[in-house]
Amino acid sequence: MKTILLALGAAIILSACAATGDDYVKGVVPEMSNHPALGSMTSAERALLGPDANANGIRDEIDRLIAINFDGARPQAAAYAAKYTQGMIAGSRGQGPTPSQASDLAGAASALDAASSTTLAARIANTPERRAAVSLWARKAAAKP
Fold first, then answer.
1. The domain containing residue 51 runs over which residues?
2. For the chain, what is the domain count?
């Protein structure tokens, strides 16, 4: 009898301590999250972005690439990478660029030489999912009058 009461008491205590939804559960990503540089993102968009420890809107490996290869043009390369990443995320949503987004990307690209912007674009869109998102964004840009 004592064992049954002890087990019942433990069950009541454990059920009272169950996660309420407000608790942080390690490994569980909320459906929507707010990214400081990119705004509201779904978990799929966050996965598309990849690791971004400093939350600047640029994947960490691209930040390292810029730091190593763009000594004199780091701000310009970072601006281009951020704009390109924003376009990739917008493409994953099925959105095309607004005129200001297209202008911002073109301006950021013109601050770099063609080879540098091509290299950065290829590194940012280095998976089939990212390439598909970028391609959708570019097609929507081309379709706008």
1. 30-143
2. 1
